[in-house]
């Protein structure tokens, strides 16, 4: 019989990659999707099947992690072998604006699933994955961070995820549930949410070189993150649930990089060299040279001329807006994936340059389409946040 998986957060970055990964492995995938006023299934559109088809391998259910009855009913109806709890209000900065909602979704939401498994007497049939996070390390106690590094959360998001981490451990110890935490460090992709720093940079860069935007306003440029590719990270989630014994694992690349360097590398992919001048809120990224051939290969000759013309009046393409600073910041994340390498046999296939190249190329294609539409007199959206 085909294995069944239930994914909360299936419309998000990781949910989409995990659904694709599991379907390729022969799973029937059930996903929980929130009701919204617009369709929100763009990331899984290529997997979506007409509900009238009889034997489908992707089935969506309306639901919300804040609704216990809904969660319990969905689990009862689909009786999955594996549950991946990826649903969350996942933006750290936004969690300072919506702390109670974040606690309810990211913290208590996890409890709702665990309790449903227990009440439905499915604890011996279901394996549970919790999307824990390197944000738990917050004000880091040691470098690099391992499964044994103490937690010090620095945001309402991280505090909610701390509860979710420990309630997962508690249900494992109290009831013998096969429940595992993946302590995942930042992972990105071309379908990363537009307001996370990586995607904000690759989109902003694409708009700047095409003349759709002049300046990219950023927050803390000195923060360091251990960035990987989401495709590698969903494979780690799956591997955790295939182990005989549940456990908790750090998933990271073991390499940490400043936001400033992520920006520099992204611009270098289109042939633009940047130099950062000034500090804190007065820091700016200045274009010091342009490699014509690379720019023309990646963008176009016509846009090169326009871009050079623009540089004559203002060579500063990156500026800082302190509005993006967080009340409490996580300055440094740097993971040690030794346990995952050893026990799960998990080794990432992407490095940071490969990730950035894929993201820049993808956003350039998207923004060229926008540019084409604008030139044809069609309305395009603005993307400032
Ligand atoms: P994402 O793109 O923001 O996706 C989050 C998903 O959760 C979306 O499908 C969203 O639905 C759904 N969701 C939000 N609130 C919900 C609610 N109340 N009820 C049900 N679903 C809800 O996040 P991601 O990057 O894929 O991350 C997946 C998980 O891993 C999250 O739990 C995140 O906190 C965690 N994590 C992520 C990273 C990372 O670097 N990406 C690292 C560590 C941990 P809509 O599409 O309707 O908004
Ligand atoms: O891309 P970010 O918003 O990701 P953050 O806060 O690290 O959280 C992400 O990774 C976590 C895993 O560690 C996940 F649990 C969480 O769900 C999410 O996926 O910001 C990264 C860094 C921060 O230090 C931030 O202050 O980039 C800095 N930054 C600088 N300028 C900015 C900006 N972040 C954003 N979003 N926007 C900026 O303009």
Describe the structure.
With 385 residues, the chain is of the alpha/beta class. Helix 1 links the parallel strand 1 and strand 2. The protein is globular, with a radius of gyration of 22 Å. Ligand G4F binds next to helix 3 and helix 6. The site of ligand G4F has 23 residues, from helix 3 and helix 6.
Describe this protein with a few key phrases.
385 residues, alpha/beta, 7-stranded parallel sheet, 4-stranded mixed sheet, 12 helices, 15 strands, 40% helix, 17% strand, binds NADP nicotinamide-adenine-dinucleotide phosphate, binds ligand G4F
Alpha carbon gyration radius? 22 Å
Biggest sheet: strands side by side, in what order?
3-2-1-4-5-6-11
Q: Between the first and last Cα atoms, what is the distance in angstroms?
A: 46 Å
Number of strands: 15
Q: Write the element-wise H/E pattern from the N-terminal end onward.
A: EHEEHEHHEHEEHEEEHEEHEEHHEHH
In what range is the share of β-strand residues? Answer: 15-25%
What level of helicity do the residues show?
Answer: 40-55%
Main sheet summary: 7 strands, parallel
Gross morphology: globular
* Average predicted local confidence, pLDDT: 97
* Helix/strand class: alpha/beta
Low-confidence stretches: none
Number of helices: 12
């Amino acid at each position: 019989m085909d294995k069944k998986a239930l994914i909360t957060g299936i419309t998000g970055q990781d949910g989409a990659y995990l659904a694709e990964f599991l379907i390729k492995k022969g799973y029937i995938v059930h996903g929980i999707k929130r009701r919204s006023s617009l369709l929100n299934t763009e990331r899984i559109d290529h997997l979506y099947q007409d509900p009238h088809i009889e034997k489908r391998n992707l089935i969506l259910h309306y639901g919300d992690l804040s609704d216990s009855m809904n969660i319990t009913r969905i689990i009862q109806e689909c009786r999955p072998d594996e549950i991946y709890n990826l649903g969350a209000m996942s933006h750290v900065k936004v969690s300072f604006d919506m702390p109670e909602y974040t606690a309810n979704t990211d913290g208590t939401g996890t409890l709702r699933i665990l309790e449903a498994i227990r009440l439905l007497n499915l604890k011996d049939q279901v394996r549970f994955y919790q999307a824990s996070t390197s944000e738990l390390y917050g004000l880091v106690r040691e470098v690099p961070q391992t499964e044994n590094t103490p937690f010090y959360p620095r945001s309402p998001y991280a505090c909610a995820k701390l509860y979710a981490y420990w309630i997962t451990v508690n249900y494992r110890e109290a009831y013998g549930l096969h429940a595992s935490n993946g302590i995942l460090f930042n992972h990105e992709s071309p379908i990363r949410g537009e307001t996370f720093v990586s995607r904000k940079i690759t989109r902003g860069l694409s708009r700047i070189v095409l003349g759709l935007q002049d300046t990219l306003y950023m927050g803390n440029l000195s923060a360091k993150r251990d960035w990987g590719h989401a495709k590698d990270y969903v494979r780690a989630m799956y591997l955790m649930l295939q182990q005989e014994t549940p456990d908790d694992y750090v998933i990271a690349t073991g390499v940490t990089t400043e936001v400033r360097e992520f920006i520099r590398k992204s611009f270098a992919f289109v042939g633009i060299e940047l130099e950062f001048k000034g500090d804190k809120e007065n820091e700016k990224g200045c274009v010091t040279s342009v490699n014509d051939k690379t720019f023309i290969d990646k963008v176009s000759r016509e846009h090169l001329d326009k871009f050079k013309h623009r540089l004559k009046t203002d060579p500063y393409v990156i500026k800082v807006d302190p509005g993006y600073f967080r009340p409490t910041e996580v300055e440094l994340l740097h993971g040690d994936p030794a346990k995952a390498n050893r026990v799960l046999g998990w080794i990432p296939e992407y490095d940071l340059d490969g990730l950035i190249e894929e993201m820049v190329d993808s956003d350039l294609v998207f923004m060229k389409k926008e540019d084409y539409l604008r030139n044809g007199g069609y309305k395009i959206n603005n993307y400032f946040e």
